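Morning - 2-acetamido-2-deoxy-beta-D-glucopyranose inputs below, output right after.
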Amino acid sequence: MFYALLGILTAFCTTGIAQPSPEELAPLIAGLENRPHEIEARVPLSTDDPTVVPLISMQVFAPPSTPRNGKSCSVTLLQHTFGDGSYNTPAVVPYTPPTNSDCGEIGKWATISLNLSVYSIGTQYDRLSAVYLSHSEIWRHSSAEPTKTGTIWNTVKDVTHFAALFSKPGPLMMDFSNIIAPDLLLDGVFNVTITATFNAPTKSFPAAVTSDTIIPLSNLSPTLPNFFAISDDIGAVTNVIFPSSAIEAYVEVFCSGNSAEEFWYLNTPDEFVANFPASTGVTGKGPFREVQVLVDDKIAGVVWPYAVIYTGGITPSNWRPLTSYGAYDQPTYWVDITPFIPLLVDKTNTTHTVTLRVVGQGLSPPSYNSNWFVSGSIHIRTGTGPTSGKMTKYDVPRLEIATTGGTSDSNATVWTKVVAHRRLNIESELIMGDGGKVKASFSQNLDYSNVARYIDDGWIQWGVQSTTGTTLATHQGKQVLRDAFDYPLSVFSNYSLYSQEFGSYNSEINQTHIRALQQPFDASRQRTIRSIQQARGHVWMDNWPGLRHAINATGATEQSFAYIDGRGETYFREVAAKDDGWKKDRVWGSLRNGNPPLPPTQFRTVHMELEDRRRPLRTHNNLIGR
Ligand SMILES: *[C@@H]1O[C@H](CO)[C@@H](O)[C@H](O)[C@H]1NC(C)=O
Ligand SMILES: *[C@@H]1O[C@H](CO)[C@@H](O)[C@H](O)[C@H]1NC(C)=O
Ligand SMILES: *[C@@H]1O[C@H](CO)[C@@H](O)[C@H](O)[C@H]1NC(C)=O
Ligand SMILES: *[C@@H]1O[C@H](CO)[C@@H](O)[C@H](O)[C@H]1NC(C)=O
Ligand SMILES: *[C@@H]1O[C@H](CO)[C@@H](O)[C@H](O)[C@H]1NC(C)=O
Ligand SMILES: *[C@@H]1O[C@H](CO)[C@@H](O)[C@H](O)[C@H]1NC(C)=O
Ligand SMILES: *[C@@H]1O[C@H](CO)[C@@H](O)[C@H](O)[C@H]1NC(C)=O
């Protein structure tokens, strides 16, 4: 068409007749403008074009292993829109166990998995959310920062170990505290659908062995978010009455830092805070955090959490559309409290306490900043009669922790180093209802180091952290829980121009999650994950409308993900995203179909990459980051 038009022009010129008038060309221009609306491949975040397919945002996850040829059923558990007024107002719906025969016998499922699917269009911060069944938290999730053309994210999680809760009716609660504020341009609501898939057992995939009783460690509120928001050194205390026939008991812990604790691993030791001017906004209380599980005020075990970076974290453009590992399904942690059973059941129907506490490095209390969200549940297996016994070893030395550091004469550079080590070993002899004896042993051996370097009054920071360790529980010599992990994290963040009216900030983050986790009750529920991520991004800002506001951004994230479970099922994914679009996605392994590659419409063509360079990206988000 274009060449034909040129031909006509040439013809007009050679005959010396005047150029076509604007009026003559108007129908052509209008015709071009009126191109048919069809779904195109993704274009950058600059676009407001509603014909563009919604962006698929993703936290890479391995889908659960499920029986290959058995029966299964899917049930929609919850559909809810979290918009204006949803802050601190969870959706609560009744849950009842599925009765359809394809689902399998209640409580005798091979697997239970949840699919949490969210759609959002507009502008919104990353918001934290949590799902609870009968007041036990079963999923902690954070949101994408959506786009003007819509963003979708789907995550599937194995929740088989909550079978005891899924076997009885109870409230299903989802908190997704969102704020709609037109004056801040925050208009993104979250449309959520949660479906559950129940798989009946087969010959080769029998019913899962799970706890038979689950006690929530939560505030039990019927209407408010059930996790505890804590900011003191006392922690969150739950009174529990243990079944006298308990023979195994494990605490699963959910925990995340919030507000001044969101980036706890970049916080500065109090000893060095005074080296920075107040204007830099350096946060104190140091980078080390320990989440403790206490039974009747005695430490039963600890968690040194993996740092989940949310989609608005440090530099938001790093995480769109590929998030940091854990953003949509935060890891949880296990402590075997079986060695405490003799103390918990010594007198029937007496109340004991289980406490979730966070310990930081603050020189004066509280030891950490406000606040942490903690919750969990106790997964108990009961036997045939009353259990007794005694604790035979309680070897829980103090946490070893040392902080060092230094400054140059002018405070132009500051460095700090925090090193911590914790080991513990708790053993008991349990006498079961049938007279059988079991020696229960729980041990942990954990190491931590964090080296931070600051220049430019703290506006530029390098933080290099290593968290490694092994948690091990054996019952009568048999391994019942193992968590061996290595979470290196390295963050370079540059806020040197942040305070300027038209400023910018940027970061580079390397984060690895290597973890072999054998969950309690069922050795086949063993999962080994190796996720390696590298992300870098740059956000430019103006100061309108009163808040620093992102005007454009770049971001590039790559991830290599590998997974194998106790059944030998595998999942591998190599994925890369750049400037709000997908660049590469290769998926293989036996579980590939459970979480397949992104559809072709999510990828940008070479042509579109060239377009990007000509047209600067604009974000519409009030991204503050950090
Ligand atoms: C999860 O649910 C969403 C929305 O219902 C659906 O599009 C997606 O395919 C589901 N994913 C899986 C793995 O079932
Ligand atoms: C999201 O929820 C709103 C309000 O319920 C509804 O109007 C809209 O159609 C929903 N969007 C999608 C894509 O489900
Ligand atoms: C460096 O920080 C220390 C600790 O606050 C302070 O005493 C000292 O005056 C600072 N030096 C300079 C040159 O700012
Ligand atoms: C313990 O409490 C349960 C439930 O309240 C009650 O059924 C049981 O009789 C009590 N047992 C004893 C020994 O008090
Ligand atoms: C991240 O890893 C890359 C490749 O090893 C390295 O070049 C880069 O310096 C690292 N960045 C940070 C912030 O550690
Ligand atoms: C920090 O960012 C600014 C603005 O992009 C840049 O000029 C400066 O070189 C960066 N500093 C470092 C240490 O990378
Ligand atoms: C973003 O905008 C700023 C200010 O106009 C400009 O300096 C910068 O180069 C832009 N960045 C991109 C990626 O377009």
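Note: Residues 490, 492, 508, 510, 534 surround 2-acetamido-2-deoxy-beta-D-glucopyranose (ligand 5) (CB under 6 Å).

O.
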